[in-house]
Structure formats: C-alpha cells, structure tokens
Write a structure and sequence with these properties.
With 108 residues, the protein is mostly helical. Helices cover 74% and strands 0% of the residues. The model has no long low-confidence stretch (mean pLDDT 85).
C-alpha cells in the first residue's frame, strides 16, 4: 500500500501540473493522468486481494477478526480512481478541442 501512496502523490503532482500548465499540457497530459489513476486503482485492488487471501488462509487472522472500515475506504478509493480516469478519458474524447488563438484585429 505504500506504493499506492507514492502513485497517489505522483497523480496529485500530475493534476497540478496539468491544471497550471498551458493548453498543450491539458491536451496531452490527460493520457498520463488517466494511466496514473488506473495504475493506482490496480495497485489498491491487488493489495485488497492479497489481504483478502491472507484473511482467509493465514493463521495470524484468528476467529473474530473482520475487514472493517479500512476495507470500505480502500474500496471507495479505488472506485473513485477508476471513475476519475473514466471521466477524464471520456471528456478528452467527447469534448471539443479548445481551438487555437485568434488574433485581435488591429484598429490602425
């Protein structure tokens, strides 16, 4: 899960760089951002799968243990990541381009 935190930090930096950058960064940065979001969700899902397997098959989890609030928060987290990646990708394809700059006519 530490790797997922590092990926989330990279995603946050990518969000800031894309929003603070110019038109070209916004038009090309969505691919990298969507990839980072999906990669983060895959890492979180894999972590959940490992914990779930160990919960069922390891002696360290004795009777009475349960997967509680952290399990729910992790599920919500990777679900939001997938929805954000889908929304960004969909908006990149569905919304029109910002277009180029138009020259301001010179009155003289």
């Amino acid at each position: 899960m530490s790797f997922a935190v590092v990926l989330e930090g990279m995603t946050l930096v990518a969000f800031i760089a894309i929003l603070a950058g110019g038109r070209q960064k916004r038009e090309t940065g969505w691919k990298i951002l969507s990839f980072l979001l999906l990669l983060g969700s895959v890492v979180q899902c894999a972590g959940m799968a490992i914990v779930s397997y160990l919960f069922e098959h390891d002696e360290k989890f004795f009777a009475g243990w349960k997967l509680d609030l952290s399990w729910i928060m992790c599920t919500v987290s990777w679900s939001v990541l997938v929805l954000c990646a889908a929304g960004i990708s969909l908006s990149a394809y569905a919304l029109p381009s910002e277009g180029g700059y138009e020259l301001i006519p010179n009155p003289h």
